[in-house]
Amino acid sequence: MLYLNLATHQPTFNNRPAMMQSTQKPSKTLTLTLDAWESKSPLSTTANKSLSVLSNASAEYERPLPIKLSLNKSQISKSATPNLNTPFEVPGTPQNEHNQTQNEIITTPQQYLEWFEQIEKSIDNEHESKYQNHLQKLNSELQVHEDILNKVSLLEDEISSLRDNWDAIDTGTASLKDACQRYLDERDDLIALKEKMQEQQQQQQQKQKQ
User: Fold this and answer.
1) Does residue 209 come out as left (phi exceeding 0), alpha (psi in the -120 to 50 range) or beta?
2) C-beta of residue 57 within 8 angstroms of C-beta of residue 93
3) Which residues are CB-neighbours of 97 under 8 A, at least 6 positions away?
4) Does the pTM exceed 0.70?
5) Which of 13, 75, 98, 119 is most buried, taking the most CB atoms under 10 A from its CB?
């Protein structure tokens, strides 16, 4: 380091560190609270959806937490991020999964992703089964309605046939009535002709007697 001697006005060299360097204060370590950390790094929509799926799955099957996850409130509040090195049991998985999958211990992120994928598949299968059951019910009701419509169509055909028969009977009855009326008129004409012939015959007999 270069210094100026006030007595000789000559520059002198000194290897001692500068006073400014010795008086520098150490930098403070910045600390970030849990609330500040969560406000600066909010969860995405996918992460919130994943948490909702996990919460619903745990609430649905009501499987108790394992002993390894029984942390007190202070430990939970101090830990802002999950420790992936801490093994824990898989929370309640659907009943249609294998027992081996239910009893697995998650120790790596890959195992967690595989378990979460199985949860999503089981939920999708459950929704698909509900949809299929509802669809089968709708199809059965639709078949019943189609059968009813077919029966109604058959009844309409029967009624139409009966109406045609009734029209034919009505037409035949009118024709028969007209024929009977003609026969009655002819009978009256024959009776009148017979009476007329009898009168003429009686008149001829009276003339012969005279």
Assistant:
1) alpha
2) yes
3) 118, 122
4) no
5) 119
